[in-house]
Design brief:
With 502 residues, this protein is an alpha/beta fold. 39% of the residues lie in helices and 21% in strands.
Length: 502
């Protein structure tokens, strides 16, 4: 039976898995790598770490599943979105990549809007406003602040597409990930020549755009030998991690929405047509489903907020820290007895688009314990995702089912919090591997095992569990949510003053 690999180049590590034609997971492996913060609110990684993690995890999966070279027919690639890999004429990395959660480019965002003729004209060209996390501002930052490095740059790739180039030798990307560069005409699903011209960027800097299931190349002989695979193995377009997770959770038709709580938090909804939030609070990107789109809201430090609390303030809890924090938070009543957390540890994207926003605990009293703080963090992250849900509902997009995924879905408490804060039953599905599973399905489609992405998802993904709403908790959260929203408005100007001195 044919086998397909899905490789997800994430922020904290790379995950690879193998599936058969029925979607059964045969083996999986992961490898971590460091994140660098040379200045406050800056975030970088070494692309070579992604490549070494890819080699390590693919070889591990091939070994665990006892795969022969000819067994693996296709590979799908997913990865953290918006990251910028700058390559020179010898295809060598010029400097560390600037990541999606890097906030250094506020001035460049203003420059982009000015060059585009204003925010509304920019949104008309590429469906989204200029945000610090996107790739285009990072490119201008390199040109403005490190001109020597910019002069060396001949290609600019996204994280997964850097790995693709090492696998195949091809400079290729696909529409879902390219949408997040702020350089793609999302409606036409190709590079925006008008915006590239206004930004004085050479189109040759960028890779060829494909649809997500299309074949972009085959493995190079030396790479195939190193990985224990065949040169007949193709690499399909794949998807940015959010669209890949949409495929991996079966969000490929109207009315289905997914939430993912990983390092970041994502609320993702399928759309059969281009629908744009005129205020630019939600992103509108191409979906990994051929000819379709999606909208999403993003919180930059969702699970990352709880991770920060665990690592910086609860290190003594050791390997069972998350279990202990969950237990202590579970013992606290909904609303954390008046304690609120604003999960803006790396600025915020949806709905505020504010790189100066800061994480905040508001309402602390002598009664509050570690469990209260843990619960407040989890509630604050969930409130931030409700911000996105309310915008989606305001736009008239139907939401008949909410599928929860990511690390947050593994916590019964966090599943219940989502049901109660959203006011709607949430479900989990049988496939918990998210982006890696999604791009493995794309690989299967590209290799001809399925007619299309919808057919692949219908054949492999089913609802596993349901979490109904606790009506009493819901009423409590409905009272707390407006207070949470007001806290940002009250602190917005103070955040700017804080950012100016830090």
């Amino acid at each position: 039976m044919s086998t397909f690999l899905g490789i997800d180049i994430g922020t904290s590590g790379t995950k690879t898995l193998a599936i058969d034609e029925a979607g059964t997971i045969l083996a999986e492996a992961s490898a971590e790598y460091p994140l660098y913060h040379p200045k406050p609110m800056w975030s970088e990684q070494d692309p070579e770490d992604w490549w070494q993690a890819t080699i390590k995890t693919v070889k591990s999966v091939v070994r665990k599943a006892k795969l022969k070279p000819q067994d693996v027919k296709a590979i799908g690639l997913s990865g953290q979105m918006h990251g910028s890999v700058f390559l020179d004429k010898k295809d060598q990395v010029v400097r560390k990549a600037l990541l999606w959660n890097d906030q250094r480019t506020a001035a460049e965002c203003e420059e982009i809007e000015q060059r585009a003729g204003g925010r509304k004209k920019l949104i008309k060209m590429v469906a989204n406003p200029a945000l610090t996390g996107f790739t285009a501002p990072k490119i201008l930052w390199l040109r403005n602040r490190e001109p020597k490095n910019f002069a060396k740059t001949t290609k600019i790739l996204l994280p997964k597409d850097f790995v693709r180039q090492r696998l195949t030798g091809e400079f290729a990307t696909e529409v879902s990930d390219a949408s997040g560069m702020l350089l793609l005409d999302v409606a036409k699903r190709n590079w925006s020549k008008p915006l590239l011209s206004k930004l004085d960027l050479d189109p040759q800097l960028f890779a060829t755009c494909y649809e997500s299931e299309q074949v972009t190349g085959k493995l190079l002989p030396a790479v195939a030998k190193q990985l224990g695979l065949s040169t007949d193995c193709v690499v399909v377009g794949g998807a940015g991690d959010c669209a890949a997770n949409g495929v991996g959770t079966g969000v490929v038709k109207k009315g289905v929405l997914s939430t993912s709580i990983g390092t970041s938090g994502v609320m993702f909804v399928h759309s059969d047509k281009v629908e744009i939030d005129p205020e630019g609070r939600l992103h509108t990107f191409c979906h990994a489903v051929h000819g379709k789109w999606h909208m999403m809201g993003v919180n930059l430090t969702a699970g990352g907020s709880l991770q920060w609390f665990r690592e910086r303030l609860c290190a003594e809890l050791g390997k069972k820290a998350y279990d202990i924090l969950n237990q202590e938070a579970q013992a606290v009543a909904p609303g954390a007895e008046g304690l609120f957390f604003l999960p803006y540890l790396a600025g915020e994207r949806t709905p505020h688009a504010d790189p100066d926003a800061r994480g905040s605990l508001v309402g602390l009293t002598l009664k509050h314990t570690r469990g209260h703080i843990a619960r407040a963090i989890m509630e604050g992250v969930t409130y931030s995702m409700r911000d996105s849900l309310e915008i989606i509902q305001e736009m008239g997009v139907p939401v008949r089912q909410i599928r929860v995924s990511g690390g947050g879905s593994k916590s019964a408490l966090w599943r219940q919090l989502q049901a109660d804060v959203f006011g709607q039953k949430v479900v989990t599905i049988n496939a918990e591997q998210g982006p890696a599973f999604g791009v493995a399905l794309l690989a299967a489609v590209g290799a001809g095992a399925y007619k299309n992405v919808e057919e692949a998802c219908a054949a492999t993904i089913q609802v596993a569990t349901e979490t109904p709403v606790d009506r009493r908790a819901r009423r409590n959260y409905d009272r707390c949510f407006p207070i949470y929203q007001q806290l940002y408005r009250s602190l917005k100007q103070d955040f700017k003053s804080i950012a100016a001195i830090s």
